[in-house]
Specification:
Number of helices of chain B: 0
Largest sheet of chain A: 7 strands, mixed
Strand content of chain B: over 45%
Order of helices and strands of chain B: EEEEEEEEEEE
Number of strands of chain A: 11
Helix content of chain A: under 10%
Radius of gyration of chain A: 13 Å
Number of strands of chain B: 11
Shape of chain B: globular
Oligomer: heterodimer
Shape of chain A: globular
Helix content of chain B: under 10%
Strand content of chain A: over 45%
Number of helices of chain A: 0
Distance between the termini of chain A: 36 Å
Order of helices and strands of chain A: EEEEEEEEEEE
Chain lengths: 113, 111
């Protein structure tokens, strides 16, 4: 399966600041997604990162708060803007390889103080 | 709300025993996938079962799917301490490619 990396692996940030998370895949993929996992919870889809166009956001997530870029078929970024302690979560990117099979990056653990 | 609910929420067994986790979902699906997550790290893909399949095996893993009951089970045979992790089911449906995750089962295998 594709090798997926994320940077940073973890960070501690102050409230009101922004953090950009990078997701890099070692092969070209069409479908790429961003998920959030709040402490002790399951995963929730934030958005689908579309190459060359705006991301498609799920209910409850907005572009101003979570801007996403997808400049090519191997790379995407998610920015968490104007952070508050409620944004403390693990953020994971995933890619679809074989039909409907999704594979996940190692995640970025964010703590907002 | 999340598509899937898993039970039990937590399961503790001895090494060598079998572990069974169940997942229920609400709408018709295309596929159901199982993932493992160790200590808040990334998810490891275990197995995908399609809606027209009833059972699938991969090593010590056995997955069943009952679309009439909208449920799936994951059986891990001869468990090992290294199987200690959280296990999640995830479904996709309709034309959407995104996954909806269950609430997860925390499995602890005692040596």
């Amino acid at each position: 399966s594709a090798v997926i990396s994320q940077k940073p692996s973890r960070d501690i940030c102050q409230r009101g600041t922004s953090l950009t998370i990078q997701c890099q895949v070692d092969s070209q993929v069409t479908m790429m997604f961003w998920y959030r996992q709040q402490p002790g919870q399951s995963l929730t889809l934030i958005a689908t990162a579309n190459q060359g166009s705006e991301a498609t956001y799920e209910s409850g997530f907005v572009i101003d708060k979570f801007p996403i870029s997808r400049p090519n078929l191997t790379f995407s970024t998610l920015t968490v803007s104007n952070m508050s302690p409620e944004d403390s979560s693990i953020y994971l990117c995933s890619v679809e390889e074989r039909a409907y099979e999704q594979y996940f990056g190692p995640g970025t653990r964010l703590t907002v103080t | 709300s999340q598509q899937g609910e898993e039970d039990p929420q937590a399961l503790s067994i001895q090494e060598g025993e079998n572990a069974t986790m169940n997942c229920s979902y609400k709408t018709s699906i295309n596929n159901l996938q199982w993932y493992r997550q160790n200590s808040g790290r990334g998810l490891v893909h275990l197995i995908l079962i399609r809606s027209n399949e009833r059972e699938k095996h991969s090593g010590r893993l056995r997955v069943t799917l009952d679309t009439s009951k909208k449920s799936s089970s994951l059986l891990i045979t001869a468990s090992r301490a290294a199987d200690t992790a959280s296990y999640f089911c995830a479904t996709d449906w309709g034309s959407a490619r995104q996954l909806t995750f269950g609430s997860g089962t925390q499995l602890t295998v005692l040596p």
